[in-house]
Amino acid sequence: MKIMQIGILLFLSPLWPLGENPTYYAPFVIVNKETLQLAFFDEGELQATYAVATGLTEDRTPEGMFTIVVKANQPYYRKSNIPGGDPNNPLGARWIGFDARDTDGRTYGVHGTNQPETIGYRVSGGCIRMKNEDVVELFDQIPIGTKIWVVDTDRNFIELAKSKGVIN
């Protein structure tokens, strides 16, 4: 009986994080297509910035506020049937998928790469590429439900985070 009660409780519990996100102190990610950088905020502070690669053309990497809905360790690349962990896998070590353009988190994402020399350029099909060591570092800090805001602007990350109430 107790196991059934715990199961019901877990089923009815909301996904983390509770409440609206972004909120002050909640994890939050900003990707700036102009500077080709990703910023990670948590606990009301900028925790880290990373160099990224984005879409080959401006329209390929969607802009807007999205939600992280899928995470995968050593993701399988289904387009070319390449297993996770294979050195030929273009998704690298981690996949952090978000719901851009009404997708399910398996189309657009932040992921590692087997081509680290492409970081800092506009070369992808629409995803946001990171060096494998960077995406591994970020992966464990971003829970499902985290907001990711993709922009193309000359404003800095602090100004952007303040505009969303993520930091004071």
Task: Tell me about this structure.
By secondary structure, this protein is α/β, with parallel strands linked by helices. It has one domain (28-164): L,D-transpeptidase catalytic domain-like. Helix content is 15%, strand content 29%. It is built from three helices and ten strands; from the N terminus they run αβββββββββαβα. The chain has helices at 2-12, 132-139, 157-163; strands at residues 28-32, 37-42, 45-51, 54-55, 64-73, 94-98, 108-111, 122-124, 128-129, 147-151. The protein has an eight-stranded mixed beta sheet, with helices on both faces. It has a two-stranded parallel sheet with strand order 4-8. The longest helix has 11 residues, at 2-12. The chain is globular and about 45 Å long.
Q: In angstroms, what separates the terminal alpha carbons? A: 47 Å
- Portion in strands: 25-35%
- Unreliable segments (pLDDT under 50, ≥5 consecutive)? 2-19
Helical residues, percent: 10-25%
Number of domains: 1
CATH architecture annotation: Beta Barrel
Envelope shape: globular
**Sheet with most strands:** 8 strands, mixed
Task: Give the full name of the CATH homologous superfamily.
Answer: L,D-transpeptidase catalytic domain-like
Secondary-structure element sequence?
Answer: HEEEEEEEEEHEH
Q: Please compute the radius of gyration using only Cα atoms.
A: 17 Å
Number of helices: 3
Report the average pLDDT across residues. 90
CATH class value: Mainly Beta
Strand order of the largest sheet: 3-2-1-10-5-6-7-9
Backbone structural class: alpha/beta
What is the fold-level CATH name, i.e. the topology? Answer: L,D-transpeptidase catalytic domain-like
Number of strands: 10
